[in-house]
Amino acid sequence: MNIEEFISDVVCRATSELYGTSDNIQIQKTRKEFEGDYTVVVFPLLRASRKSPEATATELGEKIVASTPEIKSFNVIKGFLNLVVDTSFWAARFGEIIAKEDYGMAPASGRTIMIEYSSPNTNKPLHLGHIRNNLLGYSVATILKANGHNVIKVNLVNDRGIHICKSMLAWQLYGGGETPASSGMKGDHLVGKYYVEFDKHYKQQVKELIAEKGMSEEEAKRQAPIMLQAQEMLRKWEAKDPEVYSLWQTMNGWVYEGFDVTYKALGVDFDKVYYESETYLLGKSLVEDGLKKGVFFRKEDNSVWIDLEADGLDQKLLLRGDGTSVYMTQDLGTALSRFEENKLDDMIYVVGNEQNYHFQVLKLVLKKLGYEWSDNIFHLSYGMVELPEGKMKSREGTVVDADDLIADMVGTAREMSAELGKLDGVSEEESTKICEMVGLGALKYFILKVDPKKTMLFDPRESIDFNGNTGPFIQYTHARIRSIMRKAEEAGINTENYTEATLLPEEVELVKALADYPQVVRTAGEQFAPSVIAAYAYDLAKQFNGYYHDHSILKEENEAVRSLRLKLAEQVARVIRSAMSLLGINVPERM
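User: That's the sequence. What structure does it adopt?
Assistant: Structure tokens below.
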């Protein structure tokens, strides 16, 4: 039972005995400006108590203090009853925290949740937007595991379509047989280079058609020879033309090798990878089913639609007149096959906010087809990531590349760590490891501390500030504590007699913060919100640094007090390490 549940039980028991009811009990943490730990709002009890707010609060407070040794005292401010928890309760709680091996983690829930994230196109490298997607997906998956759920992490790779053919065609026309091996480029970067090359030639041809043939811009875009060639290549791919299919397999293979390097650098992985080339035909049988049920209708051109106007949405195309599917068809089919094959309880899609409408429609269409599990589909929507220079673009070749950004972050971490003397006396091998940890920790924390729905500005230098609300500040706090623990061990200091010391008020506050951790993990899991974990880790690190500034640990003369402070520091480091791991961030032992 956590502390909130314990307090709730105590209050409900007292109100039942006094007033015959425990309905509408409201309990919250006491605000910092008042004395107390938990506050009971007594206004909902007034009808049953038939007394003033102050009299009701006083009567309830007296009852609780008399019957509950863990509650030391109370005070009343207007209609609010503030309860003060006895220090002995927090000391006992601290002992429980130390004893629990997997502290903060929930027992198995029996729920199976699939989370889809990343979903890249195979015509270019991963960029800053993909980084936000991958970090969000991986962190939410890790948080859900910590909540006891069975989690399946999946990636749906967009490996087919006209955009893929553009890179293939440009390589065929202008590549001269260039390969990742011959160019020394990562495969995804090489393919991305030809996507940009296609766009350059396409724009030039459009310009020429307008100038020389007097075409409108729209007509020129349709008639540009390179676009017609790309469309022909797509038709050949769909017909499984051996030459086109072989080129597609080769170039996609280059891209996957490149992606794997980036995923490894980011520290993300997947349990299963789906490929659109294998799933795009799924959903056609669902369309037939919908027509039979009268949920869908066919237009004169043979295309199939659903009318959602009565639900405040539009009519939505589900199958083109020529029988080819659209994204919605495929997503309906993959959702059905995933739920049925994996016996899922929930399905989470981590996809940018430009797809909000798409997922609204997806859920509604499945609901109308009679699939009740559609209520358990969640779209974890997120906003654009911008750099101080402005938004990202891809066709013009000015994309903020994920690999470059990771390398820049590690380089900036090295530069700033060296400036501050944090690498002094550290071997080259260890300093490289620390800089990778700090650079990536800075990137991950800066992105995950922000509510996903918000468009965010990513500032690399600000993210590595060792004093702000950053990953490196929290990492440094952990390293600082580990340094204290090593010195204690070297000096042979015993930490097992910590129970002989009494907690100071500031130490009680640290124990309270540690005691909050399991509930923080629960809340983050319920809300799919890594930002909840990030805020907690920062507050805990900041609180410990304030405590350490005011209280000596190793130089404390009283053995029991020193032992208690070391034990407290050790638990803070342990919880920081656990919380940061839920964000996919490693913490160094020294810095």
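The chain has four domains: 3-85, 112-274+333-386, 284-324, 403-582.
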